[in-house]
Design a protein that fits this description.
Elements (H helix, E strand, L loop, with lengths): L18 H8 L6 E2 L12 H11 L15 H15 L8 E4 L1 H13 L5 E6 L3 H9 L3 E8 L2 E2 L1 H9 L6 E4 L13 H14 L2 E5 L22 E6 L11 E4 L2 H14 L5 H12 L1 H30 L3 E3 L7 E6 L5 H11 L1 E2 L1 E2 L12 E5 L5 H27 L1
Parallel strand pairs: 1-12, 3-4, 3-6, 6-7, 7-8
Antiparallel strand pairs: 2-9, 4-5, 8-9, 10-11, 11-14, 13-14
Length: 403
């Protein structure tokens, strides 16, 4: 008798694997320069300092035990001090919740704040990890476009005027992934005012805020409203392997998240949280470390921008790289970046087509480029390869048109 295959949950219907994660499998070849993955540079991660912190932590057997669901107490104290300074207001320990990376915070918040069919407003183009979470939660997703000043809050205002009532608005306010832009101070204030007036949450997703190159990012949206839940992470400034993220939210949200986290994984790692607390509390060392990362990333970002503009001229329009990890580029000559990608891979360079981040606009002529893991010389070579692929495709299209 043939066994009947048990079903899976219907919440998986329509969900797709991340196009970026799938692309990373194709870019593992040593001959490909990858501008695709959103990875910090492992060479800049403080391996020796992390090792010393791990040794210090392991001097106590307590670090091998379970810890509290909201996070290891001393780490929460360190984060309370840091976030009070960032937001310019006193943050209480009850408002600090440590998660397994900020992605887990997004997932838990979706369970706490969303009922099936609830409205979530995101930026377009959008952070892929957030879209996966919100789609899995059964949310109705509406997109608001970006421009050079970040989220178009005027479009959000129009949606609210038409009667839309979001459960929350999600924004990557600083050095946007994938858009590369930063929300202006005026728009941060306006977004906070709208949240207060209409009673919705804002999830301010900020893993890149400390990676500024020329000037610090503006004060967080959380500075201006109690309805803002702020997320951040140690992944981009220390190392992703620590899997230490955090959420700053009202106590009632933190307690609701705690209930769900207990069902998901009970608690995080006391070892990695103690390592993170050691590094984050060493303020003099940390400031020097982050400054070094900023300098290197800034040099690479400017090299990539210069190379793209030099090789492509007015055929590509790019964002200015003021911080973070990404450059967003739009072809002005009608190039389809999904169609171009196989030719780029053949030429030895990878990027992420803009369609991977699309919500209501297809971004067929756009791409995201990551500059963090290669030096200036390699980035210039990558752009040369991209230009060669683009030329080959363009000439092939012209030849086909003449047949």
């Amino acid at each position: 008798m043939r066994a009947t295959t048990p079903p899976l949950s219907r919440r998986l219907d329509g969900l797709q694997s991340s196009a970026i994660r799938d692309l990373l499998k194709l870019t593992a070849r040593a001959d490909i320069i990858s501008l695709a993955g959103g990875l910090p540079d492992a060479e800049l991660m403080p391996r020796d300092r992390i090792a010393a912190a791990a040794d210090a932590a392991l001097s106590s057997r307590g670090v091998l035990q379970y810890t509290e669901s909201p996070g290891w107490g001393p780490l929460r104290e360190v984060l309370r001090t840091r976030e009070s300074a960032r937001t310019g207001r006193p943050v209480s320990i009850e408002e600090i919740f440590v998660t397994h990376g900020s992605q887990q915070a997004l997932s838990l918040l979706a369970e706490v704040l969303l009922d099936p069919g609830a409205l979530v407003i995101v930026e377009d183009p959008a952070y892929v990890g957030a879209l996966q979470v919100f789609r899995a939660a059964g949310a109705r997703i509406v997109a608001v476009p970006l421009d050079a000043e970040g989220m178009r809050v005027d479009v959000l205002r129009e949606l609210l005027a038409r009667g839309e009532r979001p459960a929350f608005v999600h924004t990557v306010s600083n050095f946007h992934n994938p858009g590369g832009v930063t929300m202006s101070t005026a728009r941060r204030r306006e977004l906070a005012e709208l949240a207060d007036a209409h009673g919705f949450w804002v999830i301010e997703d900020d893993p890149y805020g400390e990676l500024w190159f020329d000037a610090p990012a503006p004060a967080p949206v959380a500075t201006y409203s109690p309805n803002v839940i702020r997320l951040s992470s140690a992944s981009k400034i220390l190392a992703p392997t620590l899997r230490v993220g955090w959420m700053i939210a009202p106590d009632r949200v933190c307690r609701a998240v705690e209930l769900l986290k207990q069902g998901a994984d009970l608690c995080g790692s006391a070892l990695t949280q103690q390592i993170a607390a050691d590094l984050l509390s060493d303020t003099e060392w940390l400031a020097a470390h982050i400054d070094s990362v900023r300098t290197r990333y800034g040099q690479r970002a400017h090299a990539l921008v210069e190379a793209v503009r030099a090789r492509f001229g007015d055929r590509i329009v790019t964002t200015d790289a003021a911080g973070g990890m990404f450059l967003w580029a739009d072809f002005t000559d009608g190039t389809d970046t999904r169609a171009l990608l196989p030719h780029a891979l053949d030429a030895g360079v990878a990027y992420v087509p803009g369609s991977a981040f699309a919500v209501s606009t297809d971004y067929a002529h756009s791409m995201r480029l990551c500059f963090t893991t290669s030096d200036a010389t390699v980035l210039t070579t990558a752009v040369d390869r991209l230009a060669a692929a683009h030329t080959a495709v363009s000439e092939g299209a012209r030849a086909q048109a003449q047949l």
